[in-house]
Design brief:
mainly alpha; 3 helices; about 70% helix
Length: about 90
């Protein structure tokens, strides 16, 4: 799969996450109102689901969980910004 296709899928996952967040009565905070720790905890929880999927040999579900974790990382970047990678050389 080409990188642009991966980015397109992640963008769709972000749209989905925003829609679900707005429909979820338990957590009505906007992403920017969450802490970095909130994102890490959400990501860790979802990674644990990926591990369970790997254990049960469900690669498709494991990849779906990786998609969600990656999009959560994007959400954290949208909320807090990322430091740029310093290139050696």
């Amino acid at each position: 799969m080409e990188r642009q296709e991966v980015y397109r899928i992640l963008d769709g996952e972000r749209d989905y996450q925003n829609t679900v967040r707005k429909e979820n009565e338990k957590d009505t905070r906007e992403d920017y109102e969450k802490s970095i720790a909130d994102f890490v905890i959400y990501m860790e929880h979802t990674l644990n689901k990926a591990k369970t999927s790997i254990y049960t040999l469900d690669d498709e579900e494991a990849l779906a969980m990786i998609r969600k974790v990656t999009a959560l990382g994007v959400a954290a970047g949208e909320s807090f910004g990322f430091p740029e990678r310093k290139m050696r050389g």
